[in-house]
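Quick check before the chapter quiz. The format below is the same one you will see on the exam, so make sure you can read both the input and the output lines.
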Amino acid sequence: MGIWCISEWMAGGKPKSLQLVELGPGRGTLTDDLLQVFKQFGHLLDPCDISVHLVEVSPKLSDIQAQKLTGKSIEMEPDKNSPVYKKGITRSGYPVSWYQDIQDVPNGKHNEFFDALPIHKLQKTNGGWREILIDIDPDFPEKLRFVIGSSASLVAKTFIQDDEIREHVEVCPSAAVIVQKLAHQINCYGGAGLIADYGHVGDKMDTFRGFCAHQLHDVLSAPGTADLTADVDFNFIKRMIGGIAAFLGPVTQQEFLRNMGIDIRLKALLEKSKDATVQQHLIRSYNVLMNPDQMGQRFLFFSIVPHSRLENTSKTTKPPIPGFSPLLMQ
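Here is the expected output.
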């Protein structure tokens, strides 16, 4: 993905600045990996002005990210005149800033995180589409339960298509707002968006689930103690983008990484290392990423690019966007 960002920067005419923006950066591992790649290819990026922008609403996670990226804690900077609530310098020498909202982030390159955004669960009934709500169980006041709303759902009227054949649909209005903003920014100011997430193409129904200690967890049990997630509906994402910008995918993680040369990379690493333990670790890691039964087909990759990036592309050939077309071997 680091190579992908550099490739897109080069395809965009090597602008003098590159802004790497991540929403929901977790523990900061992905950003740290990308910056290590940027450092390795410094001769290509020089003298590009690189900056990192993280959208994180959790103070605790922002502390973990700061430790990971800068090697130290960073105090909050509550300034009503600035959208930045924390800033520092990464170990690789790049400025990094933290924001509460995507609206505050400068225009730039993005790696998005949608599966943690709030969703609306909609159920088709004899009386039309109704929203599934959460209520207190009257028989067990200490428990929560799902109930079906008694009136027509405004969310359904807004987002459900007339030709929808599923009886249960999950809709994420927040994702619609974010992806439209990104599409406008990217088409107007350049750059590229890369969305990598658990997802589907409008063919799944109930994907809302919880995880605690890497195990499935009842989403209504002990609120606040588990991670809640829902698969991204990439058909919905495409519909929300409309004609605002161009987009590619989704393709499976297996296809994206293969197009980016992961097989060649694995071969080089195996040849470089003579340690059997390291080689076994590399093969296991490769298998987790590529095996269809693990992350290979469960994760999907999707890209948003300016219309100008595809204007000269023949309709009979695959678009020349890294990861979405095969790696060309010389």
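If your answer matched, good. The chain has a mean pLDDT of 89.
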